[in-house]
């Protein structure tokens, strides 16, 4: 399976080679990212894709009945997607199309970075953005991101750019900060969907190991030796199994959707939510792993408790009065 973010990785890698200062730092980040789970959603704009559609039809209608948080399925990961962004300029609002590629890391992956050491909560984000009208230009944002719940039980992202990022963008920093917030909030929507949605997260890795990173091929084309799994959302596992017949035929591996039910049976009369609606979590029927067309498909179960969210949440920082409204292009 070819990496769907191959083009942007190639461009990032070539941009890094042009930089005199910080070249090794950026190429090291790329190497780390290529070994992480990749979530690539470029078949649709995120706001028009199946995840957004499900959220509007389901979670959006019952937000007060569901948890505000869903724990990250992965501690570190890469999120690659395309979206439509409304940019607020001094003169007018403009809807633009862009690709976003973000690598979310724990502090342990960057032990020698003084900025990372100074942070206590959240994830370090390395974000690259390209706009559809200027596809050859890449915009870089780096910094610390956290996510929390506001008084309306909605999750909101907060960002802290690195000093170098502040110097790079100057008065236009506000726009890049907004993009960093957007990808952070999108990631939380993905974990929400993974836990309650109508499809399930499956990681895909090739059955044959990749070439070693020290090869000459890796030097110029690092994506060819990437070992990170590709993450898919599937309603059933791929299988070569024929349709079963008879009453004892094994069912094909598939996702059993979550649903709402009312506890009105007499056996639940002592339950604290008796005669109330409760949400029955999705489940999976069949084997959790299968091999298909040279790849291993492995089911990934979302966490059942909130412990995994602690490293991604933080306190709400005070809003600066001098926030700029300019967005870079």
Structural features, described:
A hairpin with a 4-residue loop joins strand 2 (77-88) and strand 3 (93-105). The chain has 329 residues and is an alpha+beta fold. It is built from 7 helices and 14 strands. The chain has a domain at 6-204. The strands form 3 sheets. It has a 10-stranded mixed sheet. A two-stranded antiparallel ribbon has the order 9-12. Mean pLDDT is 77; it is low at 61-66 and 305-329. Helices cover 22% and strands 30% of the residues. The radius of gyration is 22 Å and the shape is globular.
Ordered list of secondary-structure elements with their pairings:
Layout: H1 6-18, H2 23-33, E1 38-45, H3 50-57, E2 77-88, E3 93-105, H4 114-117, E4 123-131, E5 134-149, E6 155-161, H5 163-169, H6 173-196, E7 200-206, H7 216-220, E8 230-234, E9 254-256, E10 259-262, E11 277-280, E12 283-285, E13 289-292, E14 295-299
Parallel strand pairs: 1-2, 1-8
Antiparallel strand pairs: 2-3, 3-4, 4-5, 5-6, 7-8, 7-14, 9-12, 10-11, 13-14
Helix pairs in contact: 1-2
Report the total helices.
7
Tell me how many strands there are. 14
Order of secondary-structure elements: HHEHEEHEEEHHEHEEEEEEE
Mean pLDDT: 77
Globally, the shape reads globular
From the alpha carbons, calculate the radius of gyration and give it in angstroms. 22 Å
Low-confidence stretches: 61-66, 305-329
The main sheet comes to:
10 strands, mixed
Strand order of the largest sheet: 6-5-4-3-2-1-8-7-14-13
Question: What is the multimeric organization of the chains shown?
Answer: single chain
Helix content: 10-25%
Beginning-to-end CA distance, first to last residue: 33 Å
Strand content: 25-35%
Q: Based on helices, strands and strand pairing, what is the structural class?
A: alpha+beta
């Amino acid at each position: 399976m070819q990496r769907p973010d191959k083009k942007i990785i190639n461009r990032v890698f070539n941009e890094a080679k042009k930089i005199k200062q910080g070249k090794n730092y950026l190429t090291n980040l790329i190497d780390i990212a290529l070994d992480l789970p990749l979530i690539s959603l470029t078949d649709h704009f995120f706001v028009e894709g199946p995840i957004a559609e499900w959220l509007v039809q389901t979670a959006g209608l019952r937000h007060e009945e569901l948890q505000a948080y869903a724990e990250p399925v992965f501690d570190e990961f890469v999120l690659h997607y395309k979206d439509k962004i409304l940019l607020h300029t001094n003169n007018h609002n403009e809807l633009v199309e862009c690709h976003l590629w973000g690598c979310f890391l724990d502090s342990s992956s960057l032990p020698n970075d003084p900025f990372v050491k100074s942070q206590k909560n959240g994830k370090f984000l390395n974000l690259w953005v390209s706009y559809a009208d200027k596809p050859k230009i890449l915009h870089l944002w780096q910094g610390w991101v956290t996510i929390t719940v506001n008084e309306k039980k909605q999750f909101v992202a907060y960002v802290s750019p690195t000093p170098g990022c502040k110097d790079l963008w100057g008065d236009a920093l506000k726009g890049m900060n907004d993009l960093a917030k957007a990808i952070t909030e999108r990631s939380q929507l993905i974990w929400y969907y993974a836990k309650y949605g109508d499809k399930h997260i499956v990681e895909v890795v090739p059955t044959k190991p990749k070439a070693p990173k020290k090869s000459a091929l890796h030097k110029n084309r690092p994506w060819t030796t990437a070992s990170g799994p590709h993450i898919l959302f599937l309603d059933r596992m791929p299988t070569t199994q024929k349709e079963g017949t008879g009453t004892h035929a094994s069912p094909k591996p598939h996702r059993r959707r979550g649903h709402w039910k009312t506890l009105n049976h007499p056996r639940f009369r002592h339950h604290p939510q008796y005669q109330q609606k409760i949400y029955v979590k999705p489940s999976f029927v069949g084997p959790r792993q299968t091999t298909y067309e040279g790849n291993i498909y492995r089911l990934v179960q979302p966490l059942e408790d909130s412990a995994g969210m602690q490293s991604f949440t933080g306190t709400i920082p005070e809003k600066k009065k001098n926030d700029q409204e300019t967005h870079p292009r």
